[in-house]
Structure formats: structure tokens, C-alpha cells
Amino acid sequence: MSRQETIIIPSKTDIGALGNRINSETRKCHERINKEMAIKFPVAISEPKVYRQGIQMFYHIFKAIEDNLSEEVNKNTHYSDMLRKIWRPELSRTERLHKDLMLFYGGRPAKFESPILKKQIQSTEHIRQIAIERPYLLLAYMHVLYLALFAGGQFMYPKVAQSKKLFPGASSKNFEAASSDGTNFFRFDVEDPQKLRAAYKQDYELQTRNFLSEQEKEEVIEESKVAFDMICDGINEIESHNLNVLRQKAGFRTYIKSNFLVILLATLIVYCIVRVIVFRTPLY
Ligand code: HEM
């Protein structure tokens, strides 16, 4: 090996590394999410109301992870030191998503700060619960959701940033500024995000390899599947919520239309009666 060559930890072929084990055991989950994204992401980036619902879901999930993680690392428990050595504040997404949401909700935090949809409420409660009972399970979210930002996230970023439909109020002059204000989610405040990713993966591996028992590692792998499902279910929940709203609107329109016909018919009948009985004018 030449002097310049750097050792990547964990190597992609290291089948004992927890991160690699998670990737290999969640391959099907990732394929499922890719299929979902292939259909729903183009819709989201052409409709600001759908896009903001999507990042609102991510906001609640990332906030739950970061709130509970920060609580845990500030304690002095068996796991807090390990989690502290892995976590890097540059990865935090809560504030960045909050900024994006402020743009998409016109500066009205009351519109997005508390989860309303059932699955999102359940997800935040689930994260809180595991953090209390088995804090090492936070490692599942620390792998799945944060490393996704460096892979799928970097694929999505330019598409969101360049979507003319997402920032409709912006003119060609200030488009770049508006797009930048609404895409904090995808950026890291570091010179080289790929270095951050590599360092994070390395610390994750070094801290977990000997510290966790095999039983704990298996539980983290299982929880990683839950993390993927959480995102898939959350996306599907938004879709059914929007379909329900559309259905209700269509139902309301039909109701108004049918009422209008009834009123029209009644007016016609009254008109005929008045004409025939009161004015004794034949109808034809
Ligand atoms: C459009 C959607 C997505 C695309 C195109 C995509 C694409 C990719 C690609 C190409 C990789 C391999 C990167 C590498 O080997 O360095 C990857 C890895 C990964 N993705 Fe995705 N992804 C998407 C969405 C997601 C989502 C929503 C999640 C999480 C819920 C996710 C979680 C992951 C994880 C955990 C890895 C492994 C990262 C690592 O070990 O460094 N991906 N993705």
C-alpha cells in the first residue's frame, strides 16, 4: 500500500462491521423506499404543499432522534459515552429543517411544529420509548437516516434546489436565494461533506465493534428495518391524507351541485304553479 493511500474504516467488504450488516440486511427496505421515491418524489418537487408535508415528516422524526440523543449523551449511562463519541453536531437536521419549513409555511411555525398525522405522532413516541428503554437502538436511526443524507439526499438536493415549481414566488433574480433558503435540509456546514461522512462512519464502527454485544447489534439491525418502514409508512400516510382531502372536496362539490339542481327545480315548479293558479296563464 502506498503512503498516500488512506484506510477506509469500515471497508465495504468488512462483513462484521455493524454499518455494513445494517446495509446488507435492509437491502429490501431500501429497494422499497427507492420505488416509493421514484413515484412520489417527482410529485413532491412540483407541488410545494406536498413537498412541505414531506419535509415536515422528516422534521418530526429528526427532531425526535436529536432531542432524545442529546438527552442521552448528556447523561452518564453505560451508553452515553459511546453515543457522544459517534455523534457530530454538524449532522443535526432539526434547525435546518425548521428554517426550510419557515419558508414553505410563510413564517408560521404553529402550522408545522407539532405532528398531527397519526403515524408521525406514533413515530416520535416510538423513538422516545426506545431511547428510554434501550438507548443503543438510537444507533439504527443514526445510521439509516443520517447516512441517507449523503447518498439519496445528494441525489435529491439538486432536483429540489432547481425546481421552478417549488419556489413560485421567487423571480429569476432572487431564485437562487429562495432556493437556498428552502434547502438547508440537504447541506452541511463543513468544507467537505464526504469527509464528514467517512469520519462519522469510522467512529460508528470503532465505537460499536467491541462495545456492543452480538445481541445488541442484532437488535440495532432489526430497529434499522423499523426506521426504513417509518419513512415508507410516513410517505404513504401523507399520500392517503391528500387523497382523502381531495375526495372530501369532490364530495362537497357534488353536494353543492346537487343542491343547486334541487333549488332550480323547486323554483321552476313554484313558477309554474304561480303562473297557472294565480295568473291563470296556460304554460303553453
Ligand atoms: C431517491 C431516493 C434514494 C436514492 C436514489 C438512494 C440512493 C442510494 C445510493 C446510491 C446509496 C449507495 C451509496 C454508497 O454506497 O456510498 C445509498 C445508500 C444508502 N441509503 Fe439511500 N437512496 C435513497 C433514499 C434513501 C432513504 C429515504 C433512506 C433512509 C430512509 C436511505 C438510506 C440509505 C442508507 C442507510 C444507505 C447506506 C449508506 C452508507 O452506508 O454509507 N436512502 N442510497
Automatic annotation (TrEMBL):
Residues engaged in binding heme b: 30
InterPro entries noted in UniProt: Haem_Oase, Haem_Oase-like, Haem_Oase-like_multi-hlx
Domain of life: Eukaryota
Transmembrane segments: 136-157, 259-278
A molecular function (GO) term: metal ion binding
Keywords (A to Z) from UniProt: Heme, Iron, Membrane, Metal-binding, Transmembrane, Transmembrane helix
A Gene Ontology biological process term: heme oxidation
PANTHER family: HEME OXYGENASE (PTHR10720)
Protein name (database record): DEBR0S4_03092g1_1
